[in-house]
Amino acid sequence: xxxxxxxxxxxxxxxxxxxxxxxxxxxxxxxxxxxxxxxxxxxxxxxxxxxxxxxxxxxxxxxxxxxxxxxxxxxxxxxxxxxxxxxxxxxxxxxxxxxxxxxxxxxxxxxxxxxxxxxxxxxxxxxxxxxxxxxxxxxxxxxxxxxxxxxxxxxxxxxxxxxxxxxxxxxxxxxxxxxxxxxxxxxxxxxxxxxxxxxxxxxxxxxxxxxxxxxxxxxxxxxxxxxxxxxxxxxxxxxxxxxxxxxxxxxxxxxxxxxxxxxxxxxxxxxxxxxxxxxxxxxxxxxxxxxxxxxxxxxxxxxxxxxxxxxxxxxxxxxxxxxxxxxxxxxxxxxxxxxxxxxxxxxxxxxxxxxxxxxxxxxxxxxxxxxxxxxxxxxxxxxxxxxxxxxxxxxxxxxxxxxxxxxxxxxxxxxxxxxxxxxxxxxxxxxxxxxxxxxxxxxxxxxxxxxxxxxxxxxxxxxxxxxxxxxxxxxxxxxxxxxxxxxxxxxxxxxxxxxxxxxxxxxxxxxxxxxxxxxxxxxxxxxxxxxxxxxxxxxxxxxxxxxxxxxxxxxxxxxxxxxxxxxxxxxxxxxxxxxxxxxxxxxxxxxxxxxxxxxxxxxxxxxxxxxxxxxxxxxxxxxxxxxxxxxxxxxxxxxxxxxxxxxxxxxxxxxxxxxxxxxxxxxxxxxxxxxxxxxxxxxxxxxxxxxxxxxxxxxxxxxxxxxxxxxxxxxxxxxxxxxxxxxxxxxxxxxxxxxxxxxxxxxxxxxxxxxxxxxxxxxxxxxxxxxxxxxxxxxxxxxxxxxxxxxxxxxxxxxxxxxxxxxxxxxxxxxxxxxxxxxxxxxxxxxxxxxxxxxxxxxxxxxxxxxxxxxxxxxxxxxxxxxxxxxxxxxxxxxxxxxxxxxxxx
Length: 890
Prior knowledge:
With about 900 residues, the chain is α+β, with helices and mostly antiparallel strands.
C-alpha cells in the first residue's frame, strides 16, 4: 500500500511540474515576442526573457510551495469556520457527537476483543512455526494421544525442531506451613516450554533426566503462585515442596505473561508444572490408552505446514503397520496453533463485529440526516457563497471539514466509552474465551478508532456535502432559504430506510439468540440440577498409596461421613460431573459379535464410574432392571448399567438386560448389563460432543491399579434439602474430620455448571441484544427526526390544506402515511437481508432455524409499531397546526 501511495504521489508531482513548466514556457515565449516586437533580434529577445524570469527551478519550487501553503491555509480556514458553526448550534453538535461516540465506542470496544483474540500473533517467538499435533480419526475428529505414540512421533519425524507433550493432571495436596492445600497442576515434557519459547524468569526448565520415570522430582511454579505463596522470594530456586507426600525441588518460575490453551483441550493454567515423563500411572506405558495427552510442535525453518502433514502421515503409516491393534485406522493432525486456539470462537466474534459495524452505520445515517436537515437552513448561505464565486469543491471541503470535526470529537468520546465498554465486555466474556487476558486498548485499537472516526466523518458528511454543493441559486435566493427540495426529502428517506433495514437485521439476530437460550434452558438434561453440589477430594498419600482393599474401605468411610452432614439427602462417588466436558471414552464389543481386529474399529461410549446412590443424587430415572447396589463389589460378578441411547443404538428393540459387554482396556473382561437408565446430556444441553451413549460401572469393581488412580482425587455428587452453598462449610469440616490432610476442592453447584455451558451463547445474546436496542433507539430517533423535519417544511402547505377544508385526520393520514411507507420499505429490505445474513449464525443457534418465522414476524411487527409511534408524534403536531399561523409562516 505504501509503495502504491509513493507511486501516486510521484505521478501527481510530475503532473504538477509539467503544468508549471508549461506555464513558465508560455510566459517566456510571450516576453520574447514582446522584445522582438520592440526591435530586438530573436536570439537577444529570448535571452533577455530568460534572464528576466531567472532560475526556472527556483521559480517552480516557489510556485509549488505557494500552492501547498494555499491548501494548508484553506484547510485551516475551513476547520476554524466549521468549529465556529458547530459552536453556534450546541444542541445539534451534542446530539451528533453523542450518536457517533456511541457507534464508535461500541466498535472500538468489540474490536479490542477481536484484535486480542484473532488478529494479534500468539505471544511466543516466531508463533507461525507453532502447531498443534493430535491423533486424527477417519471421520475427521481429533483426539488426544498415547504417551508411547508421542515418543515415536518424537523419534521418527523429520519436520519439527522440537515437539512437546502436555496434560492437565489431577493436582496435588501441598503440605506447607499451614493446612494442606490443593494445587492445580499440569504435566509437561521437558521440551514444552523451550518449544513455545518461554524462558523462566527464575531458575531453569526441566532437564531430560527429570522428564523420565523415577527421575528426580522437580517442579516449576507459575508466576501467580510464586507471588501469592512465596511472596516473590528470589531465593525460592532449589527449595523443596511436599506434594502428595513427595519432596519436589523447585527448578524455576514462569513469567507472568505465560498463557496457553487449545480449542480441543481446556488447558487450565496450573499452580505448578511437573515433568510428564515421570508420571507413574499404568496408562503411560499402554499404547492403546489415550490418557488426555496432547502435543504441540515447532516446525523447522523452511518447512511448510503441508510438508509437516505429509511427514507425519508417513509416521502414522509406520505406526499403523508396526502396532495395528492400537494405531491402525488413525492419522496425525497438524494444525497451526493459533487456529487451534481461537478457531472455535472466530465465527462468533466476526458475527458480533459485523453487528456492531451495523450500529456504526446506523449512527452515521442518523448524523447524515441531521446534517441534511441543518444544511437546508444554510441553503441561502451556500447560494450566496456560490454566487460570489465559491467553487463546488470549496463548499464540499467546508462541509467535510465540519463532518470530520464531528467525527473526531465523537471518536475521542467514543474512545473514552470504549475503555468502559472493554471492561464491561470482559465481565461478560465466557471463561473459556481464549486469550481473554490479552484484551486491552493497545496502539492497534487506537489506530482502528482513528481510522473509523475519519471514515465515519467522510461517510456521513459526503452525501449532505454533495447535495448542498450545487444549489439552484435563483430558486434558493428567491425563497430566502425557506424550504428544501423533494430530492432532499428522498435522500433523507433513503438514510432512514438504511437505518430501519440494519435495525431489522440486528433485532432478528438478537431474537434468534434469545430464542436459542430459551430453548436450551427448556432442554431436559436428563437429571435435576437444582440443589446438587459437585466437588472433589484430594486424599493424602497415606490412603492413596495403600492396597486396593484399604482404599475401597476408606472411600466408603468418607462417603458415609459426607452423607451424615445435616441437609445432605443423597451422596455418590463419580469420576466426572455431567456437563464439565472431561469424560473418558472406552471402546468395547458386544458378546454376540467377534472382537474387532484393532481398538479403532470398536464402538466407543462414555464411561462413568459411580457408586450406588448416583441415580438418587441426580434424579435420573431407572427405565429397566436395577442400578448398582451394595452387593456389586470385588467379590461379585462384574456388572454395568447402560443408558437408553446405548440400548437403542446397540440392541435396537431387544432387551439388553442380561446381555454382556466386553472390554479390552482398563476394565479387561466381560460385564453383564443389569439395568437401563435415562440418557443425560454429558457434553452440553445441545449435545455437541462426539460421544453420546453412556454406561456405568461400580467404583468398587474397578481394577486395583485403577482404584488407586481414582482415589487420588475422587469426585462427589450430592443432593441437599436446601441451597448447597449453605452447607459447603459443613461438608469441608466432615472431610477434614475424616482425615486432616484431605482437601476438598472445586465445589460447584450443578446449576452453575449448567449455566456455564451457555456462557458463549449468553455472551452473544447480551451483545447482540444491546446492539439491537441501540439500533432500535437510533432508528426510531432517525425516522422521528425526518418526519418532524418534513412536517415543519410543509407547514405552509398544511395550513393551506386546512384553510381549504381538509380535516385534521387527513393531515394525520398524509404525514403518518409518508413515514409508514419509509418504515415498511426499510423493514422489507431488512427482512430480505436478514434471511441471507442469519445463515452465518447457524453455529451459535439451537432449536430454531436461521429463518425462524416467529422471530422474523415478531421483529417486523415490533419495528413497525415503534416506527409508527415515532411518526405519530410529529404527525399529531402537524395536525394541530393553526391555519393563520401556517399561512404567515416563513
